[in-house]
Every structure is written in structure tokens, then in C-alpha cells.
Amino acid sequence: MPGYFFFFGGYEVTRELLRKPDESRNDIGWQKTMVAGAVGGSVLWLVRFPADCS
What angle do CA 18, 24, 29 make, to 5 degrees? Predict the structure, then answer.
């Protein structure tokens, strides 16, 4: 459960960073949404994997 906090945090921050100043986060397109999902997944596993292995 705590890992999803980091996933959605990374996902939403990335979506915010990838948008242009004149567009909303919902209008960034599927490519940038996929990048945000990949970043979110990476952040989740960077935080969660060491806890799984110890």
C-alpha cells in the first residue's frame, strides 16, 4: 500500500512537469501519459524493492 503513494506521487508530478503552461494535465497526450506512468512505476519499485528484499 505505501508503494502506491510513491507511484501516484511520481505519476502526478511527472504529468505536471510535462505539460505546457497553457494546457491542462488532461491534455498532455498519450505519449507523455505513458512516460508519466513509467516514471511512477520506477519510483514505486525504487522505494518498494529494497523493502521486499530485506
Answer: 60
